[in-house]
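Example with several molecule types.
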Amino acid sequence: MSEILRIGVIGAGRIGKIHGENIARFIPQAKLEGIADIRLTGEQEAWAKALGARIVSRDPQDLFKDPAIQAVVICSSTDTHADLTIAAAKAGKQIFCEKPIDLSIPKVKSALEAVKTAGLTLQIGFNRRFDHNFARIRELTLAGEIGDVQIVKISSRDPAPPPPAYVAVSGGIFIDMMIHDFDMARFQAGSGITEVYAAGAVLVDPEIGKAGDVDTALVTLKFANGAIGVIDNSRKAVYGYDQRVEVFGSKGAAAAENDLPSTVKLSNASGVIGEKPLYFFLERYKDAFINEMISFTSAALNKKPAAVTGEDGLEDMYAALAAAKSLKEKRPVPIDEIRAQY
Amino acid sequence: MSEILRIGVIGAGRIGKIHGENIARFIPQAKLEGIADIRLTGEQEAWAKALGARIVSRDPQDLFKDPAIQAVVICSSTDTHADLTIAAAKAGKQIFCEKPIDLSIPKVKSALEAVKTAGLTLQIGFNRRFDHNFARIRELTLAGEIGDVQIVKISSRDPAPPPPAYVAVSGGIFIDMMIHDFDMARFQAGSGITEVYAAGAVLVDPEIGKAGDVDTALVTLKFANGAIGVIDNSRKAVYGYDQRVEVFGSKGAAAAENDLPSTVKLSNASGVIGEKPLYFFLERYKDAFINEMISFTSAALNKKPAAVTGEDGLEDMYAALAAAKSLKEKRPVPIDEIRAQY
Amino acid sequence: MSEILRIGVIGAGRIGKIHGENIARFIPQAKLEGIADIRLTGEQEAWAKALGARIVSRDPQDLFKDPAIQAVVICSSTDTHADLTIAAAKAGKQIFCEKPIDLSIPKVKSALEAVKTAGLTLQIGFNRRFDHNFARIRELTLAGEIGDVQIVKISSRDPAPPPPAYVAVSGGIFIDMMIHDFDMARFQAGSGITEVYAAGAVLVDPEIGKAGDVDTALVTLKFANGAIGVIDNSRKAVYGYDQRVEVFGSKGAAAAENDLPSTVKLSNASGVIGEKPLYFFLERYKDAFINEMISFTSAALNKKPAAVTGEDGLEDMYAALAAAKSLKEKRPVPIDEIRAQY
Amino acid sequence: MSEILRIGVIGAGRIGKIHGENIARFIPQAKLEGIADIRLTGEQEAWAKALGARIVSRDPQDLFKDPAIQAVVICSSTDTHADLTIAAAKAGKQIFCEKPIDLSIPKVKSALEAVKTAGLTLQIGFNRRFDHNFARIRELTLAGEIGDVQIVKISSRDPAPPPPAYVAVSGGIFIDMMIHDFDMARFQAGSGITEVYAAGAVLVDPEIGKAGDVDTALVTLKFANGAIGVIDNSRKAVYGYDQRVEVFGSKGAAAAENDLPSTVKLSNASGVIGEKPLYFFLERYKDAFINEMISFTSAALNKKPAAVTGEDGLEDMYAALAAAKSLKEKRPVPIDEIRAQY
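Resulting structure tokens for the full complex:
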């Protein structure tokens, strides 16, 4: 076992930069060896070099064929994830891939198959499992403090809606936004989802409706272990990024409130005023992005299964597709109904 | 307009005693004139006299036929509510009736018809609307602080399940327990419920399952104004009576936490420990019971519509019946489907 | 032992009315027998009769000489407290007296002597000991949860200053306002105060300074058991009545936050906004006033020492006089230095 | 103006390592050029090289004489601070020096004089001013939200006492521990301290008393602007590092609660349990250490006065010495009395 994991990052957009910097600066057991981006700009090149990247390229193959690189972090556009995963698997690289692997289930399956055949570690970028609050809830459940999980409640609301143009190609609210919450629900329940029922509405922006999507959604979940749950999403909470989870069980309940910029409360003639939640995912999940990469580094170095596997990504996808179908057909949809289609 | 409402209370059980004492002691504009209970005990008689009741009887007719009594508060067993309401209406008394009016919709309708014909005020005992927390949320919504209501979330969990024998005759969790939450949901949304989808499970006590009911339930709501919502119920929260409401809208969100016996927090080597919620409805809704009676008194004296009308009770009933049907048939059920049956 | 304590209330001003109503309506073991007020108005007379008072008079002697009355509650102006206490003691009545007994220590001592000679129960109206929050802290300490008390911190701030004219005759901030906090400090420390050091300033209203008083004060306390403490007072907190206590010890710390009208928080573009504290002492200590009277009733019926004795009142007075002297002479003042003067 | 500040760190102990890593990893405008430690170990050398330090030495002179190095961060033992500050000033380096500059006021003055003569920026390591919570309070005050500051309250308690051997050479609780709080008090009041009165006790560990110190202290403060304040310190809070500040003024009050590892609350049969505060200063002030170095870097690059000057360090020292004298002589001590001694 090598003590340091040498990593190449594919894609130097917003999330690629976060992973690149985290690897270069915060993870003693990882080293940023290279960056590849097919539309590499001068600014990105300078950034990569400042972080000490040895390879800076427009071609991911430059990372795949470099023998020193042991792992790749795939942060390119979604439609390239599956192919890059397969290529990385063939090259024998351990893989961290941003979610989703692909919008097409068969392509996801092909990618997972390639990884499995190669006997590699694949971690999907469901970063919220590594958030201090949500990880703490799961820790309490695993420590027996909650007893049997009976109800899981997740509120997940964005501070502002994406542009309608983005919405149109996003795969819809369930694939684009709630997929994180399906993953959180499965994580917190410690059990798979067996059925979903989705209610949705266009309450934030009529343009989102015109793009064929909803902007407000509420999905009931049934889990294999008998628990039930609910997720609510809104594309726009005026008070900011609202990310809360509650797990209720036979011995207790654990609930996470939002993270705030400070604990300060101002008392004046208007009331007692606390701060709004940290603005958006970059602020709220800053440490979670580091923690997921530490987890991946450790799994890859030790050739152990990832904390969030390709199968997790697939299951979350099934839940999202089932929710979309439920909304359309106005009925509860069993996950197996989706699974059977592929 | 008389300045004092002279009231007779029918039924001197737990809730009857609460209303009797509240009328006698806390409501300057009301006077407790009489108490009737068909199984009147010596203890109840002494209690009634100590409160200054002029009439203490086993026969509600003694209240109906007394000309000084202007209003009755019906707290007898559920199966007597409809008949007593009709009798009270015929006697020209203003009526406060504990929920539900009846488990049979036709009987409810007959009772409402009688009240309507007589041109009287009828208030149903949905006390939670008068809780300081929930009333405050509604006040904020009416003041425009929430904007358009988009999502309503209600958690309502009991500290301990009722005996299975009670469950068997209770009408089930939706009629017996969640009906309060349907009423709260309609109150907070400021809109009627149009459709429900119910998930339920037996997770607390298998005996409840044997009695044909569930003890854990989660119901998705759609409202006429486009908002969506969710209610979760559990028959047993080990930490006590959990009563929370959150209303999310286009301009903000308001959320109520539980009421506690004190604000004290103990910090020690185990953590920072706050108190559990007030134990159960008698403690939590102590002031709400007074406030609803003040509201009724004022409406009756001024011959105005009640804050919670018979139609509200009927609508809540429809929602409960729809939820029960949804659970049984595993599909969303429109309220109109229930309404059309009667 | 009689089961009901028959009480006469002397003084029908604001606090007298509170005690009168509490006795008449909320304390099953007490009965309001009479009301005396030397300036009795028609309104007060009507109020007293509505509460069922048998004797309504301008002469306290009518209460003292009535053989059925076992106890009196003295709520008249401060300058009459000592004489009325002595008269009540001579008449063999159990006594509840609003604080302070007198501004003159010799008069206080005379009154205490009279009560002692007569072998009666005397309770002083330090209502805050009966507040649910502060009583809970003391309960935790007595249960051993705090360990040895090391630091006591009290914040006590009024929503608005009294008129300067009142200030001029009030005895000053330490006698008029902080005396409650000295009592709370002794209660929470479970120990007497041995020395005080006072800092004070005129920051709220220059007129208060002209009246010879300060409006902002901070007093360091040393207790006989070795603990130390601090009280801060302000005559004006724009956010309302601020009443908090913190007790820190070898095994933990307990802290009470303010009571609020509701638990609701409004999240919007400005922040997360909670309610201001309950407005002033009538709202905040509503239940504490009832609880202190229940405590007095029980002590008087059982001929046991009161929860807050005349000696407590005297000790609180010494602390207040020491603080005033400390502020004037700009040095710490031992309580024994004050005690030795009398 | 150069865009990057090239920094040498003197002393590679606990705090030196924190600053070294922060400079190397988190501050884009700073570069770690060298490390010097007179007792440099192999481990420290490896650590310095891994961070990219060009100079790794046992002799601070190697940093002073390097022309590329523009600034030094002095983290060596306290008794070397003044001499190193003077040497750095002579070498024309901008200076960040850990607190205190020296336990001897004349030595502090010599160091400040040298810096002043050289026209350099000197920042003292009072990191708490850069804490997100405390900075937020100050921000609110500066924004006018508090109005005139009237009362400042600071609680500052350690999770565990230092060994008595350390206490004996620490300079005592006021110099060693409360000096941070004097600095915070001046920062929050926006005004100098004019007088202190100290109460102290040995309540945690008798060995601390034998070493001539107290372990529990409470100091009253008077500020030049008329405000008053109080600081309480304990060497041992069983629930962990307790760091709270409250500023009360004419228009409002702002209060900071402790930072916690997560927002999760566990509700069970014992209560509603939150987490203990972050363990100690390394955890709690992790970001504050980064922020203070960013602030220094910016001041040094722009040749502006530091956010915390040498004069601040001197004033805090005066307050600590005055508190020690107050405790010993049992009287309030004006700061000018201390100032006049030097």
